[in-house]
Specification:
The protein is about 20% helix and about 25% strand. It has about 160 residues and is of the alpha/beta class. Strand 4, helix 3 and strand 5 form a beta-alpha-beta unit. It has a domain of about 100 residues: archaeoglobus fulgidus dsm 4304 fold (2-Layer Sandwich), CATH 3.30.2170. It binds two DNA strands through strand 1 and helix 2.
DNA sequence: GCGACAG
DNA sequence: ATCTTGTCGC
């Protein structure tokens, strides 16, 4: 069953965090999937879109678009409970299952090390990368001023939190 | 107590 | 995330 309350969701994260395996090697990747979720009807409907590309060619191989009732409110730190259910439905419809997932949200750079990418990857047992557009917690060193600069930052920098 | 807070 | 208007860059 899926958590319905904030305490239950946090408890589940605490339970799952130990299962996370941090890796810099994703093994042999043949198909990579881009995953994202949008909302309709004032947030009451969740819409998942998954596209599978060949790797490294990046040719579209498959995709799925699924809508379902939104199961959980947006709570910073608990995004996965709002977006994952409909994503699971979409992933189940793929004829070409991916070897790697790239999600719009945090991975282990999360208060309890379980951002949506980590959570989803754990549930479907597929390596996942969190590709968030902004920071949820922590800090990082100042970045190069030039767009496209190659930098190597600590994973989930300064994640000292008291949540 | 106050501010911050993925999408 | 979504909505909506104005502005910017190619």
């Amino acid at each position: 069953m899926w958590p319905t309350t904030i305490p239950a969701a946090i408890a589940l994260q605490e339970e799952l965090r130990s299962k996370i395996v941090v890796a810099d090697d994703f093994g042999t990747v043949t198909r990579v999937a881009g995953v994202d979720v949008g909302f309709e009807d004032e947030g009451t409907t969740a819409r998942a879109a998954v596209v599978v590309l060949s790797f490294p060619e990046l040719r579209p191989l498959d995709y799925a678009l699924v809508r379902a009732p939104t199961p959980f409110p947006y709570v910073p730190g608990l995004l996965s409970f709002r977006e994952i259910p409909v994503v699971l439905d979409a992933l189940a419809q793929l004829a070409q299952p991916p070897d790697l997932l790239i999600c719009d949200g945090q991975g282990i750079a999360h208060p309890r090390r379980l951002g949506i990418a980590s959570h989803l990857g754990l549930l479907v047992d597929i390596p996942a990368i969190g590709c968030a557009k902004s920071l949820l917690i922590g800090h990082h060193p100042s970045l190069p001023a030039t767009k496209g600069s190659q930098v190597r930052l600590p994973i989930a920098a300064n994640t000292s939190v008291s949540c």
